[in-house]
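hiii, so i know i said id send this last week but things got crazy w the move. better late than never?? heres the sequnce for the chain we talked about at the cafe, plus the structure i predicted for it. fair warning i was half asleep when i ran it
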Amino acid sequence: MHVTRQISRRAILKATGVAAGAASIATAATPSVAAGGAFAHPGLLHTGADLARMAAKVKAGASPYTAGYAKLTANRHSQSGWTPNPQAIVYRGVELRPRSTWPQNYGILYNDIHAAYQNALRYHVSGDSAHADTAVAILNAWSAKLTKVGGSADRFLAAGIYGYQAANAAELVRDHKDFQLERFQKMLLDVFYSVSEDFLVRHNGTPAPHYWPNWDLCNIACTLATGIFCDDQAKVERAVEYFKHGDGMGAIKHAIPVVHDDGLAQWMEAGRDQGHSLMGVGLMGTICEMAWNQGIDLYGYDDNRFLKGAQYVAKWSLGGNVPYTPYARVDERPGIQHPTAVAPASPTQMRPVWAMVANHYTKRRGLSATYLTQIAAKAAPEGGGGDYGPNSGGFDQLGFGTLAFTRDKATDTKATPKPAASASGAASDSRPQTAATASASPTAGGGLAATGSGEIVGWTAAVGVTAVAGGLLFLRRRDRGRHGAS
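okay and structure toks below
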């Protein structure tokens, strides 16, 4: 197949009018996203300007881009000879009562998605059309066959994580002449988004705060990515509103419930383990970056709350002491988790989540973020899927942030976000913009999203700290005999 150097470098500014689909979340539409208007493409994790920057920096031999690109080219998933293995139904998770008979084959999906993403990214840097052709072949194969994401409650993790990742891979080749765009949009809507929407509305038949934050965060990411990829304004509004005010633990004030006097903000899962906290930083950063590229500032929301939470996780992960507010025990059933202190953290445990967040706050915004700067440097050059172990936890982020998100300091760090522009400089002036807010453990490689038991723990915030909305945090405990869950 032949592809020109222009793919994904042109602005595709159109609205397709895709129906909202499943039942909507019972929250008011956010005024920060105006009705109507076209979305800028490419405009998920990477814009046309981002892709042009990567290519130019690597061509010029600039550091650290060359080291980041070397990580990409060395990864086995980024080779143009990759052959996809699409499945009709992807299963994730095993029901224990009674034990299920379906095969857990979700590893096939995440390996193919990462191969599509890495080949597409490699194409944009190198200009070698064989990599674009490979990415398109993978994505077309799956959209022609996949009909369902099933399994235990873990199906919601599969839909959320792999849904947003698949959309990002496809966004990089959406303008390829052989890419089946409408068929892929339909798959995203029917197979991934529908499950994510169901989770955000019903939370698998449990109270909204029942699950740990990453369950919500991955499904918010899928909803947002699908909305942008399918030019569906309602879905983008839904994701943004849930991020700000949702009932579940993924809403930002639940995921980061306590802002301490020292300027750090406690990550909800810091009392649980480091791995899930790292995953949460990556997922929240993904949501913020995709929104930013469409002119919506979630990074700065609530006085840069995410910055304060990411700084907390960074300092803790570097081995520093961080404040921790214990929660009073509410659920007295035996065996449930009752964290009373921050969990142990190992400075050796890394995930490719830091470059994106550090570069936004320090380079785009010109803010001081000492711990983010330190940990991003330590994690560099960031790899991607396949570089952090063979299990699902090593594929929870698309990665390669050193290559993709390293940027020069913005000349105007006070500017509000603008919709992503194409290489030609075109962008939709009608896209909404929101003003920036003033002011500034599983083992490595282990699966960070395996399902455990359905036990619930409730905590109430201690007196004298920022209270969590609703007063109670109901957290789903994971079986100690398995990897930690999202």
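btw The first strand starts at residue 89 and ends at 92. thought thatd interest u
miss u guys!!
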